[in-house]
């Protein structure tokens, strides 16, 4: 996968009004991905939504869906999200002892496969596995809740993967999730993030669509001038 030609912004509907999800997705038309947090109250201490809501959302929007599964047993539960039509399905490294098999099943079911790691998880044991996924999701807050403070220490993992991708040794999209807003997006962009998830920064704005555009413009100031278009 080549680097996208511009920063990608993925609004997280965790911060949207769950009683008006179709309207909330229309408010962010023009976003690169729609980030959907699936939480099972076991892998994380929160419960959100599951496959039936994702299936309905897929009918309500054309924005490519980025499903972030914060769940136990992703080998069992991840492929149906791909079969339903999600563009990218991300599972947690900490939730499985066979990430390659989960990624293979997601891809076989028709979606891009993403690997997520919590802030405290070391990247080193997963570097080889990154050859078998399309996206690395670096969590910059503890998974479970929106509106938390950005953890800048995770950017060393972003820099490591950025350098490997730029050197042609890996081909993976680098995504960051948690605490991304006008105060933090620039340091993340400078470290080499391709895709920025933003929940409260987008949905607490008066105009979520303009908030997406503003975040993209801020990150673009740190974009390399000549990147190969995806
Ligand atoms: O996965 C998660 C939280 O677990 C995120 O996707 C949050 O939804 C991001 O929200 P903000 O930190 O941007 O408010």
UniProtKB/TrEMBL annotation:
Listed GO MF terms: D-ribulose-phosphate 3-epimerase activity; metal ion binding
Superkingdom of source: Bacteria
Cofactor(s) the protein needs: Fe(2+); Zn(2+); Co(2+); a divalent metal cation
Cofactor notes: Binds 1 divalent metal cation per subunit.
Residue positions binding a divalent metal cation: 35, 37, 68, 177
Function description: Catalyzes the reversible epimerization of D-ribulose 5-phosphate to D-xylulose 5-phosphate.
Protein name (Swiss-Prot/TrEMBL): Ribulose-phosphate 3-epimerase
Originating species: Gordonia crocea
């Amino acid at each position: 996968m080549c680097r996208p030609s511009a920063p990608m912004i993925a609004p997280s509907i965790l911060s949207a009004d769950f009683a008006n999800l179709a309207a909330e997705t229309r408010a962010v038309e023009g976003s690169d991905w729609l980030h959907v947090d699936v939480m099972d109250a076991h892998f994380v201490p929160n419960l959100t939504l599951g496959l039936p809501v994702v299936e309905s959302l897929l009918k309500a929007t054309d924005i490519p869906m980025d499903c972030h599964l914060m769940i136990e047993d992703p080998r069992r539960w991840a492929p149906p999200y791909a079969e339903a039509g999600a563009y990218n399905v991300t599972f947690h490294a900490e939730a499985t002892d066979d990430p390659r098999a989960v990624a293979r099943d997601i891809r076989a079911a028709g979606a891009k496969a993403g690997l997520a790691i919590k802030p405290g998880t070391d990247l080193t044991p997963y570097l080889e596995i990154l050859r078998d996924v399309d996206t690395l999701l670096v969590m910059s807050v503890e998974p479970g809740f929106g509106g938390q403070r950005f953890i800048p220490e995770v950017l060393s993992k972003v820099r490591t993967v950025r350098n490997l991708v730029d050197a042609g040794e890996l081909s993976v999209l680098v995504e960051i999730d948690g605490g991304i807003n006008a105060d933090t997006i620039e340091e993340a962009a400078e470290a080499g993030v391709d895709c920025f998830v933003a929940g409260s920064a987008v949905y607490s704005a008066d105009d979520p669509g303009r908030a997406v555009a503003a975040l993209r413009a801020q990150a673009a100031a740190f974009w390399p001038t000549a990147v190969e278009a995806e």
